[in-house]
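Intended use. Records like the one below are meant for learning the mapping from a protein sequence to its folded structure. Do not use them to infer anything beyond what is encoded.
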Amino acid sequence: MDDLLSRLGKASWDTLEGWVGPQPLQMVAESLSTTLWIVSSGISAALTTLCGILADLLAASSIGGHRLVRAAALSPGEVQRVLLWALAALVGSWVLSRLRGLLLPLLQGVKLFLFLGAFLHVAASKESPTVQAGMLLALWVLYTLLGSLVGSQNPTARLDAAVRSLEWKVEELRRRQKFGGPRNRED
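Structure written out for the chain above:
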């Protein structure tokens, strides 16, 4: 029970307990636990009912698999475990998406440095010119493929900028039409 995750959880609990106090933190933890158990029990009951209906339909139509469907009904504890893992995955994905913006320029610099080193190593090698050309071409293709897999840092930023530019141009045209461009003036 003395693994890294347990120690991290205990340290987090102790820190929160120091900030908020033991009683409010205990009350919030019990409320969240009770709420999660109620939701898990409801999902478990719904799954059990749906799996029972589906198993009965499969058995009535002489299609195998009704035992497998009945086994897919999860207990409230199993549903709670699935929900907690889904929450952990969601939080982890959010954290990684935030860190991506910070780490992507650094990783692109490391990638450039490594490929530059590999390029210089291949260029300085004692291989025949044909082998060197093949290795350099392969290195260039690999670098290009890795660059296209990563893509631009934020593809929606360019789209947003283009939309803002178009909106500004439309506003400018409306303003010109409204306040008297040369064609709208009546003499």
